[in-house]
Design goal:
By secondary structure, the chain is mainly β. The chain has a single domain (2-170), classed as Beta Barrel (Lipocalin). The protein has one helix and eleven strands, in the order ββββββαβββββ. An eight-stranded antiparallel beta barrel has the order 1-4-5-7-8-9-10-11. The model has no long low-confidence stretch (mean pLDDT 92).
C-alpha cells in the first residue's frame, strides 16, 4: 500500500567539513515522496528534495550551492533517492539500500535507519517514522568545486553526511 511523505514533519539535512576545521550544516525545506508499507513495515521508499529550498543560514553560500559550481539547481532542480531494498538488521534498525541522484548522476547509497512501528494518529491516519543517515562523496556526483588552502587542505570536504527524518502517512478509505 502506498503511503505519502508528510513534508511538514520531514527534514533532510547535511553536514560537511569547512576549511578542514569546522562542520557546516544545512537542510532542504521542501521534499515529497512515498513509501510502500505492508503489514506496518516499510518495503520501499522514494523521496524527491527541491534543491532550491537549500538553507545553510548564509544567503551567499546558499546561492553558491544552487549555482553550476555545485547542485546546478536551474538544470537539476531535484535530488532523488529511491530504495531498491530494505533490510531488517534488528529491532527498529534497518539498512535501506537504493540509488541517489544528484545533478543527473545516480550512484548507489546505503542508509542506516531506524523505522518506528506504525501508529494511528488522532485523526485516524496511519503513520510511520523513518530516521536515516548515510555518507556520500560529493565528487562522485560532479560536485567538484573547491579551493586549495594556503596552509594545506581544501575549503570544502569531500565527504557529506546526510540525515533524513521522515514521516509517512496513509489515510483510511
Amino acid at each position: 500500500m502506498e503511503w505519502q511523505l508528510d513534508g511538514s514533519h520531514t527534514s533532510a539535512s547535511f553536514s560537511v567539513r569547512h576549511m578542514m576545521i569546522a562542520t557546516v550544516r544545512g537542510h532542504f525545506d521542501a521534499a515529497s515522496g512515498s513509501a510502500q508499507v505492508e503489514d506496518g513495515k516499510v518495503q520501499s521508499a522514494k523521496v524527491d528534495i527541491v534543491v532550491g529550498s537549500i538553507a545553510t543560514r548564509d544567503a551567499q553560500r546558499d546561492a553558491h550551492l544552487k549555482s553550476g559550481d555545485f547542485f546546478d539547481a536551474e538544470n537539476h532542480p531535484h535530488l532523488h533517492f529511491e530504495s531498491t531494498r530494505v533490510e531488517h538488521v534488528s529491532g527498529e534498525n534497518y539498512r535501506i539500500v537504493g540509488n541517489l541522484t544528484i545533478r543527473g548522476t545516480t550512484r548507489p547509497m546505503t542508509l542506516d535507519a531506524e523505522i518506528a512501528p506504525a501508529i494511528k494518529d488522532p485523526w485516524g491516519n496511519d503513520r510511520i517514522g523513518v530516521s536515516a543517515t548515510g555518507l556520500v562523496d560529493r565528487k562522485e556526483f560532479g560536485l567538484n568545486w573547491n579551493v586549495a588552502l594556503e596552509a594545506g587542505g581544501v575549503l570544502v570536504g569531500d565527504q557529506v553526511k546526510i540525515e533524513v527524518d521522515a514521516e509517512f502517512f496513509h489515510a483510511p478509505n
